[in-house]
Amino acid sequence: MKINQLAQQADVPAKTIRYYEEIGLIKAPQRAENGYRIYRTDDVHRLIFIRRCRDLQISLEDIKTLLAAQSDNSAPCDKVDNIIKQQLKRVQVAREELCKLEQSLSALASSCQRNKVSECGILHKLHSEEA
Amino acid sequence: MKINQLAQQADVPAKTIRYYEEIGLIKAPQRAENGYRIYRTDDVHRLIFIRRCRDLQISLEDIKTLLAAQSDNSAPCDKVDNIIKQQLKRVQVAREELCKLEQSLSALASSCQRNKVSECGILHKLHSEEA
DNA sequence: AATAAAGGTTCCAGCAACTGGAAGGTCAAG
DNA sequence: CTTGACCTTCCAGTTGCTGGAACCTTTATT
Question: Which residues of chain B are within 8 Å of residue A125 when distances are taken between CB atoms?
Fold first, then answer.
């Protein structure tokens, strides 16, 4: 299978696949005589796994760890567990941050009644202490 | 006032101030004879404004627009209004995304009962269709 | 006065995770 | 036989900084 087929099946741009290879996230595949990369069905699964992790905004570094954990089947899964828990923490914190942001911004958005910048409540609030 | 004083008063690293100057977000200040940047009280206010906007995760591009709007006092504040509304939208979308992420991750986090990778529910779910 | 520490300056590199584009080789179809 | 799609490599750019080297100036201490 050539790179674009893999790309299509895993729903990951070909460019990104080459990038993943470059940074060592996936191993370099065999090459055809013309130099084209040749992939196996196995690679589709691995790449889909990676895409799912990326959908969950797990960093490439952490994905590397997850992949490594999988290649050693008898290893304890503390690492896997920790990564997911960490991610959950990160996402929770980020969501809380965004909630605060949302409040600030919606307060700002409702504060512009005039139509001249000099009288604009938004800019006034952004300049005042409490914004 | 020298750059580190400005940095302290506005709570923005000196390095970042130079960067803002470089990309044209703030204008180049006067220089002392020794080449040091000399800032005025005015600059403190502008920089605090910028920091507040960054706290709200408004992009430097948009902050540029907000600053430009302010320098033309008689301009209508549609632009300001639009930027804030856009930001609000962006933040709302991002928060919703994070809520979904949080659900997925917390489902994953609770799915590991065994202590071998080969039996790890987390990895199984990440490999299965629905993850 | 000599020297050390603190604070300036410039420029270059790197982070994450790609993405775009140039320049060129290969392959199937009309 | 040429057009167009697909492959290759390599280089550059994105966002918003941040770290560090190499160097100069000012201030404090011995």
Answer: none
